[in-house]
Amino acid sequence: IHEMDNRRDSESEESEEENPADINTIWIFSRRFQLSVPKLASRRRVVQELLSDLLQVSHNLFSDSFFPVLEPIIGVGSACEGWSPHKEEDVVYCMFVPLKPPRGHAFHLEPDSMGGMPQTSRRIRVELVCTCTGEQPDQNMLCFLHHSEEELKRNQAASLLHTLCTGPYLDGEKIALWFQTFVISAWSMVPQSCHYSMKVLPSCRSCKMKLMKHSGRSLFVETVFGVQQGDSDIFLSSQPTEAQLPPSTTWLESYAVAEAKFFRHVAMQAPPRSCHLKCLRLCARLLKGSGLSTYALKTTVMHLLTLIPLSEWQHKYLLMRVDDIMCYLRCCLEEKRLKHFFFDNEDMPKEISLPPAFQEAQPLNLFQHLAQDPAAQTEALKEFDDL
């Protein structure tokens, strides 16, 4: 990085037009890897409007019930961050729906011993709370704690404990099935039904939809459910990892909302025509088919965006920044260590809210599997050098 920055300083007075070889290379890269994705933002807006309209319908339909309260959506993942590594027809627009407890209920986050990942998994215990007293008691609601079971059955919808829980714990699979059923029944009530046909795709922990226009163009949408940890940008997510499918009452720690917030922060601070998203997309296409995950690449770029001044991410420095990214990844592979971005990070923008424990916690190592398996590290280095 220092070498690249020294070279940059020596060339800082040259204009971009005076480096035709670099300009030509960048143009070739852009064409070869389809780096320009101007439709991402407009399609993301279409998806966000659709989900917002569906949530409005849900509030009307479930106002007298005790299902989880669906909070405003948050766009997460690469497509909403503006750099999806996929081809246009394969992009999935992921929307995060925070869940709040309904009236007369409370959520309590507990360590999980069932999921096998104690550092990053929790269970969400649902507890009934008294609604008889308080500053504004609900006159139209019977208290689940202080009315008889017979009276409750006769006059009030079932509590959340009797619908979308397994035992006392919120069940991710039951919530996904409930929302999928709602989407199918509510589709005709949203304006988008006039322009798209919709199909709910199989998914056990989220709601996946395929929207099809009469022209044949398709949009893929995935709705994931989450419960906020305190007032932070860290959530517990219904979505399992690719490597493991834990019990349906196990919710995994998700950093997707914090990541989306980080990229919005960078977009506001970066110079016009910043190349950081193009670097991400280019490197993701270069690494496609290798053993390196897209998440490891994104973590690398997030680290570099806090280490290298944002003024040095102008478009004319694209090749240098790509080289920085690949060098950083190579060093992490050699050291068998890639530190998770949100743990014990002194360079974290103050706009991002993290649980206090994150500052004292032992940072997660995304390359822990390489530290435990020397043969896997050797293979990963060879594969990387071949690329």
TrEMBL record:
Name of the coding gene: Itpripl1_2
Question: According to its record, what are the GO cellular component terms?
Answer: membrane
Going by the UniProt record, its keywords in alphabetical order are: Membrane, Signal, Transmembrane, Transmembrane helix
The principal location of this protein is membrane
What is the originating organism of this protein?
Vidua chalybeata
Signal peptide range: none
User: Where in the cell?
Assistant: Membrane
Domain Mab-21-like HhH/H2TH-like, first and last residues per copy: 290-351
Homology family: Belongs to the ITPRIP family.
Annotated membrane-spanning segments are: none
* Membrane topology qualifier: Single-pass type I membrane protein
Pfam families from the xrefs?
Answer: Mab-21_C
Tell me the protein's name. Answer: IPIL1 protein
